[in-house]
């Protein structure tokens, strides 16, 4: 997805045109955040779990090379075919060639943010292969011809009535039917036919265990299992950072993942795939796509700890009020804003600024990524690399000139207050973005500095 | 003990009463306070916009103004956090001074709680007050426990407000959501910023606040802008003004 000509601020402006909808979106995601809080507060050892997860991931990132080779060799021993892709394009080509070799042109796919990141669906469709997303939320946005707006809740931006309309158009449900139970049953029937008839299934990977060569896929709908178990070919796509050293480490991550994501104790299905069943072929594609570049950036490398729970989105006051699509990238929200500039600094130069740096994201992160500090650091990098608006650069230089010189500051302060007091028209107009929704501060007679000079006796 | 009073630029220019209350409160508590008159700004507006490399002038000036004091106290959690995290010296000569400032600078309520260990105040403010937990003070300086964490509750500003006679603290639906000010965010992301401000104000208003207070004037400036646009009777007031109030 490309932002085209609109950046996060402009896309948010569009989203905010319908305030009632913003309220609904905010409340819906706040409800998920509240469920997460309740689940976390039920575990007295929560903070210790976060710290443990963070340290395990530190270990993984520091020894990634060794764990990857260990995983590859164990997986091969288990009868899994392992492929390496250095970028999204290579990943897509590998998937395509596996399907071509298997003579398959219709597939099912469970949720995988990696394939979103690589734009796999577009690539395969362009090459004549039909892809059916089997996660309910993903199927809904696929029918709507939209990208997911949230990594865990792909269609959270859609109301049930809108989903009813989509299903009426595409699945033939009665017009005006918006009952979630009815619509889910319709989707189930629709997808069942796909599961039974498709010969290849793609899944994502939540965790890959270096010690055993197995991988774990977490879903609530069992759709990854339905796809993989009914298909002759199973292709699992994973970013190289998804490793954990040993199986026992899953006991930390599986407890954190669903609690952080939705407030559930664990995902309904946490399925371990270790070897292909008889007659099946199983592939794993290990994808870099910028991850080793990020690993080489000391300030940003620990963003690779992310387990894609979405907690930072649910808690983010900006995400809740701007919607996932305003981030114009596969992974929205605070985590997306520190991952995306690594892939394309110019395209995503706006994202690190789409935050008040409130820090709530860092606090909910189950692997303790210092997200808000990385947002601040990306801002410095983006400006230094020359991707800042030249007008902003001018304004900042003028501000620096004023604020670094006490005499200039005092004069400018007087002028600034004088302007506010005497010509409110000059500042209270449409060009002043503060004034659209907010009054200017009332103007005091004198600054504190002036008051101090007049009123405090000096020894 | 001599305390250097740091009054951030926008408080100096627009909210002198918050600064006066801070000064008077510290004096009332027996602190020897000095206001270095050549101070300007902590540099945060530039740094948060990605222009940290332009803040050396502000940093040098800050070190010049404040290095000599035993403590530095400021009625703004956000500016204090910025200095704690990012105040650097240009040369190694005064890096020691910068490091020492980063350690001895305090936001007002944490100074009262942790250094002066204030356990009673002769203040009276008979009103219903909503406490806005400013993000940088709360999550950055850890002035209060954060709802995201599984850890024991505490709040330095609330602890002080509880010593004020007649004051009633209202309960908020979302006790620590951001007000949306965010420095240049308030104009760069105007739509979301204003909506966040409206929502934050609504929480206080619906729960019966007469006043919204905070340990950070910038959040209050934002919420005041919204309240005044709505022609609301609810007012904002810096926590120093409440802790120094004598209303009966």
Automatic annotation (TrEMBL), chain A:
<dbReference type="Pfam" id="PF13183">
    <property type="entry name" value="Fer4_8"/>
</dbReference>
<dbReference type="InterPro" id="IPR009051">
    <property type="entry name" value="Helical_ferredxn"/>
</dbReference>
<dbReference type="InterPro" id="IPR037171">
    <property type="entry name" value="NagB/RpiA_transferase-like"/>
</dbReference>
<dbReference type="InterPro" id="IPR003741">
    <property type="entry name" value="LUD_dom"/>
</dbReference>
<dbReference type="Pfam" id="PF11870">
    <property type="entry name" value="LutB_C"/>
</dbReference>
<keyword id="KW-0408">Iron</keyword>
<dbReference type="InterPro" id="IPR024185">
    <property type="entry name" value="FTHF_cligase-like_sf"/>
</dbReference>
<keyword id="KW-0004">4Fe-4S</keyword>
<dbReference type="InterPro" id="IPR024569">
    <property type="entry name" value="LutB_C"/>
</dbReference>
<keyword id="KW-0677">Repeat</keyword>
<dbReference type="GO" id="GO:0006089">
    <property type="term" value="P:lactate metabolic process"/>
</dbReference>
<dbReference type="InterPro" id="IPR017896">
    <property type="entry name" value="4Fe4S_Fe-S-bd"/>
</dbReference>
<keyword id="KW-0411">Iron-sulfur</keyword>
<keyword id="KW-0479">Metal-binding</keyword>
<keyword id="KW-0813">Transport</keyword>
<dbReference type="Pfam" id="PF02589">
    <property type="entry name" value="LUD_dom"/>
</dbReference>
<dbReference type="InterPro" id="IPR017900">
    <property type="entry name" value="4Fe4S_Fe_S_CS"/>
</dbReference>
<dbReference type="GO" id="GO:0051539">
    <property type="term" value="F:4 iron, 4 sulfur cluster binding"/>
</dbReference>
<keyword id="KW-0249">Electron transport</keyword>
<dbReference type="GO" id="GO:0046872">
    <property type="term" value="F:metal ion binding"/>
</dbReference>
<dbReference type="InterPro" id="IPR004452">
    <property type="entry name" value="LutB/LldF"/>
</dbReference>
<protein>
    <submittedName>
        <fullName>Lactate utilization protein</fullName>
    </submittedName>
</protein>
From TrEMBL, chain B:
<dbReference type="GO" id="GO:0016491">
    <property type="term" value="F:oxidoreductase activity"/>
</dbReference>
<protein>
    <submittedName>
        <fullName>(Fe-S)-binding protein</fullName>
    </submittedName>
</protein>
<feature type="domain" description="Cysteine-rich">
    <location>
        <begin position="3"/>
        <end position="84"/>
    </location>
</feature>
<dbReference type="Pfam" id="PF02754">
    <property type="entry name" value="CCG"/>
</dbReference>
<dbReference type="GO" id="GO:0005829">
    <property type="term" value="C:cytosol"/>
</dbReference>
<feature type="domain" description="Cysteine-rich">
    <location>
        <begin position="129"/>
        <end position="223"/>
    </location>
</feature>
<dbReference type="InterPro" id="IPR004017">
    <property type="entry name" value="Cys_rich_dom"/>
</dbReference>
């Amino acid at each position: 997805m490309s932002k085209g000509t609109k950046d996060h601020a402009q896309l948010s402006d569009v989203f905010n045109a319908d305030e009632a909808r913003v309220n609904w979106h905010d409340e819906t995601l706040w409800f998920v955040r509240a469920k997460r809080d309740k689940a976390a507060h039920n575990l007295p050892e929560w903070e210790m779990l976060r710290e443990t997860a963070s340290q395990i991931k530190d270990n993984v990132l520091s020894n990634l090379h060794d764990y990857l080779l260990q995983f590859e060799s164990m997986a091969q021993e288990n009868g899994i075919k392992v492929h390496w892709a250095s970028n999204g394009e290579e990943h897509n080509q590998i998937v395509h060639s596996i399907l071509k070799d298997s003579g398959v042109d219709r597939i099912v796919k469970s949720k995988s943010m990696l394939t979103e990141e690589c734009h796999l669906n577009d690539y395969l469709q362009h090459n004549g292969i039909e892809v059916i997303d089997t996660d309910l939320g993903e199927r809904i946005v696929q029918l709507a011809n939209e990208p997911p707006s949230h990594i865990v809740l792909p269609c959270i931006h859609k109301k049930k009535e809108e989903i009813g309309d989509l299903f009426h158009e595409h699945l033939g449900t009665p017009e005006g039917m918006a009952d979630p139970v009815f619509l889910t049953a319709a989707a189930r029937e629709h997808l069942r036919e796909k599961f039974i008839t498709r010969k290849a299934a793609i899944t994502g990977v939540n965790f890959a265990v270096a010690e055993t060569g197995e991988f774990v896929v977490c879903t609530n709908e069992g759709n990854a299992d339905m796809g993989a178990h009914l298909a002759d070919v199973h292709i699992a796509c994973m970013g190289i950072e998804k490793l954990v050293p040993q199986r026992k480490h899953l006991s930390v991550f599986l407890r954190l993942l669903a609690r952080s994501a939705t407030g559930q104790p664990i995902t309904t299905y946490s399925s371990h795939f270790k070897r292909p069943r008889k007659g099946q072929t199983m592939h794993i594609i290990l994808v870099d796509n910028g991850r080793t570049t990020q690993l080489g950036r000391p300030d940003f490398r620990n963003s690779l700890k992310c387990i894609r729970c979405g907690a930072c989105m649910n808690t983010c006051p900006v995400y809740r009020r701007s919607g996932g699509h305003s981030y114009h990238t596969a992974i929205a929200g605070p985590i997306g804003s520190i991952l995306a500039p690594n892939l394309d600094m110019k395209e995503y130069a706006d994202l690190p600024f789409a935050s008040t740096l409130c820090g709530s994201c860092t606090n909910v992160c189950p692997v303790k990524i210092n997200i808000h500090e990385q947002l601040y650091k990306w801002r410095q990098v983006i400006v230094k690399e020359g991707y800042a608006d030249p007008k902003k650069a001018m304004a900042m230089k003028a501000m620096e000139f004023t604020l670094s010189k006490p005499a200039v500051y005092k004069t400018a302060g007087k002028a600034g207050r004088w302007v506010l007091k005497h010509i409110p028209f000059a500042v209270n107009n449409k060009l002043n973005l503060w004034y659209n929704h907010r009054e200017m501060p009332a103007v005091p007679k004198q600054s504190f500095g002036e008051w101090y000079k007049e009123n405090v006796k000096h020894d | 003990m001599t305390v250097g009073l740091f009054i951030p630029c926008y408080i100096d220019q627009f909210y002198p009463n918050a600064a006066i209350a801070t000064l008077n409160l510290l004096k009332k508590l027996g602190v020897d306070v000095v206001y270095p008159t050549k101070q300007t700004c902590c540099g945060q507006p530039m740094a948060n916009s990605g222009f940290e490399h332009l803040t050396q002038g502000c940093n040098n000036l800050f070190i010049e103004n404040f290095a000599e004091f035993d403590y530095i106290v400021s009625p703004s959690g956000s500016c204090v956090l910025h200095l704690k995290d990012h105040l650097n010296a240009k040369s190694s000569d005064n890096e020691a001074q910068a490091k020492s400032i980063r350690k001895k600078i305090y936001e007002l309520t944490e100074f009262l709680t942790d250094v002066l260990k204030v356990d009673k105040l002769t203040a009276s403010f008979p009103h219903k007050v909503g406490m806005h937990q400013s993000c940088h003070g709360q999550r950055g300086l850890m002035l209060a426990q954060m709802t995201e964490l599984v850890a024991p509750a505490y709040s330095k500003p609330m602890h002080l407000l509880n010593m004020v006679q007649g004051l009633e603290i209202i309960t908020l639906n979302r006790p620590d959501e951001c007000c949306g000010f965010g420095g240049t965010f308030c104009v760069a992301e105007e739509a979301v910023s204003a909506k966040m401000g409206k929502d934050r104000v609504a929480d206080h208003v619906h729960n019966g606040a007469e006043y919204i207070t905070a340990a950070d004037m910038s959040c209050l400036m934002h919420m005041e802008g919204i309240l005044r646009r709505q022609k609301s009777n609810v007012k904002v007031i810096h926590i120093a003004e409440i802790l120094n109030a004598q209303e009966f």
